[in-house]
Write a structure and sequence with these properties.
305 residues, alpha/beta, Rossmann fold, 2 domains, three-stranded antiparallel sheet, 10 helices, 48% helix, 21% strand
Length: 305
């Protein structure tokens, strides 16, 4: 069977420089003067997912689950490694991709256009999106007035009606009422019957077990386990039970110990990061020349007058 998604040796790092001076120094130094402080949210992640697989992504808060789903949805790019995706992807997360100042109706059209739908196709599915969302008159209000549950409703309604090949649900069903969540789960089941590929982030072991045939356990940047859902979920739930028995201080110490490993530089060359930095330097230099030139012209005009 051909893979639907292939993640190979993926790293995702973030710059931890705290102030503008640090960032400016790291930008122009290429590591020779002031080295960037990086945090590796994902560290050497590799797995393959086939068409029709439903993958439950599990892990403690802060382990990198949302970073992984953003990469799978092509919202961001890896710092190193590759992600090959065969098909159209739609991400459902609380407020993901929704413009806060636009109304629900305007966001429907915008998101559908971003998915490559024509005006004719949008018109054909528009009423279905509005009806499924159950937002009533709020559909005419700006997104900034929505609760988390309402944003999730709209995001889910848009995503399922664009008919993606790969559906990514990032804890979007953890907010709002249970009736709507159940309605969404029924729709996801329909997608599974159509042999679509699904990534499902949830803290509910019951949901993961019911909805997924595979599981990916992400543990502070590392892929702890990947494979059949039941043995991995059983091991993870045992880990969570032991973790919850720790005191708050012990839990914090455990998290900090693992997060400390995410601040260590891995033994790889992050070529994509370096290329981005070089590009940024060139762009910054050109902008500097533009502003400097404008300042000189402005000064000459003042002197001339």
């Amino acid at each position: 069977m051909n893979y639907k998604v292939k993640v190979k040796n993926v790293y995702k790092s973030f710059d931890l420089n705290r102030n503008r001076i640090d960032k400016l120094l790291s930008l122009f130094s290429l590591g020779s003067i002031k080295k960037e402080k990086k945090f590796y949210a994902l560290n050497d992640i590799s797995f393959e997912v086939n068409e029709g697989d439903s993958v439950g992504i599990i892990g403690l808060n802060g382990s990198g689950k949302s970073t992984l789903t953003d990469l799978l949805a092509e919202v961001t790019q890896p710092s190193s490694g590759t992600i090959d995706i065969n098909g159209e992807v739609s991400l459902i997360a609380i407020g993901a991709g929704l413009e806060q100042e636009l109304t629900g109706i305007e966001n429907i059209r915008l998101k559908c256009l971003m998915h490559g739908l024509t005006d004719k196709k949008i018109d054909a599915i528009f009423d279905d999106i509005v009806e499924f969302s159950e937002l009533g008159d709020f559909i005419h209000q700006p997104i900034r007035t929505y609760s988390s549950g309402m944003k999730s409703r709209l995001g889910f309604s848009i995503a399922i009606n664009t008919d993606p090949d790969i559906l990514i649900v990032d804890e979007a069903l953890s907010v709002g009422d249970k009736t709507f969540s159940q309605k969404c789960l029924v729709k996801i089941k329909e997608f599974q019957e159509q042999n679509k590929t699904i990534f499902f982030v949830s803290h509910s072991g019951g949901q993961i077990k019911d909805m997924c045939n595979k599981a990916a356990w992400v543990q502070f940047g590392k892929l702890e386990r990947f494979g059949e859902v039941e043995p991995i979920l059983e091991e993870y739930e045992s880990f969570i039970e032991n973790f919850n028995m720790l005191s708050k201080d012990e839990q914090m110490q455990y998290r900090e110990k693992l997060m400390e490993t995410q601040r260590k530089e891995p033994n790889i060359e992050l070529k994509k990061d370096e290329n981005v930095k070089i590009s940024t330097i060139i762009t910054t230099f050109l902008l500097f020349l533009m502003f400097a030139g404008s300042a000189v012209i402005h000064t000459l005009n003042i002197l001339g007058s």
